[in-house]
Amino acid sequence: MVQWRIEDNMDTFMERYQEPPEIFHLSPVCMLAGLDKEGDPIMLNRLGSFDAFGMHQQVGTDAMLDADYFLFELFSTRGNGMPSHLDWQQYHYEPMTGKRFAQFTVIVDLHGLSVRQFHPALFGLLKKSSYIGQYYYPGLAKRIVVVRAPKVFRMAWGIAKHFYDEQSLRLLKFVTNDDYLEALQEFVDLEVLPPVMNGKGKQMPGYMEKVKLEGGRISEQMQTQ
User: Fold this and answer.
1) pLDDT in tens, 130-180
2) Fewest CB atoms less than 10 Å from the CB: which of 3, 33, 71, 164?
3) CB-hemisphere CA count at 13 Å for 73?
4) Is the dihedral of CA 108, 114, 119, 120 positive or negative?
């Protein structure tokens, strides 16, 4: 990880990249403003509602991977070239908690997942994205709670699970549709969840406030913007 950051000059990535194009506001991934029960941040990925195939058609693989790097840097970096309006750690989390960020809880919401997200063109992208998370940004997630997985998920997971190492797989906790709120309550107060997950919570200030968590077809969302 350290060698990669040096070779790719990642300490200046945020300064160079700034923010993804506006279309990436339609990718429903963000940090929530509320915290888990241990006082750590909550990253929400509404993967089931994300039209990854539609995004891929609009911008291509390289742009999606650059947006991945942006999110990982946004979630993990404090200062170090980070524009002040994006630095949620210094200006929101630390004043609220009195401590430095270390790890976060990840909630992956698969509600709405369909075969459209399983297009063959996306598996290479998923493999690369999972590699980035595991080997370039290790240790950020302390748990990954996967909720509202439909039956079609089993087909995709049979392939996707081979993209993750044993350490990552040990972090995973799968929860059924019926008891997902009860299961999440072990780790978070339910009111910190956003309205799309039956809560009243908001998103972390800055870029993450711009993210549209409702999801849906990219082409249709672009027409309504």
Assistant:
1) 899 999 999 999 999 999 988 888 777 777 787 888 888 899 998 877 788
2) 3
3) 26
4) positive
CA dist., res. 136 & res. 120, Å (int):
25
Closest by CA to 74, choosing from 92, 57, 62, 60, is 92
Could you list the beta-strand ranges (E) of the chain. Answer: 29-35, 41-45, 104-109, 141-147, 172-174
d(CA 27, CA 30): 9
Q: Which two tokens stand for residue 129?
A: 């994205």
Report the amino acid identity of residue 79: G
Amino acid (1-letter code) at residue 168:
S
C-alpha 113/C-alpha 110 separation (Å) is 6
Q: What is the rounded CA–CA span in Å between residue 216 and residue 180?
A: 22
Q: What are phi and psi of 106, to 5 degrees?
A: -110, 130
Q: Give residue for tokens 């915290």.
A: 35
Per-residue tokens: 193: 């969840």
What pTM was computed for the model?
A: 0.92
Q: Could you tell me which CATH number the domain at 2-224 has?
A: 3.40.525.10
Q: Within 10 Å of residue 199's Cβ, how many Cβ atoms?
A: 18
Q: Is 136 helix (H, G, I), strand (E, B) or coil?
A: helix
φ/ψ region of 60 (left if φ > 0, alpha if ψ in -120 to 50, else beta) reads: left
* Domains of the chain, residue spans: 2-224
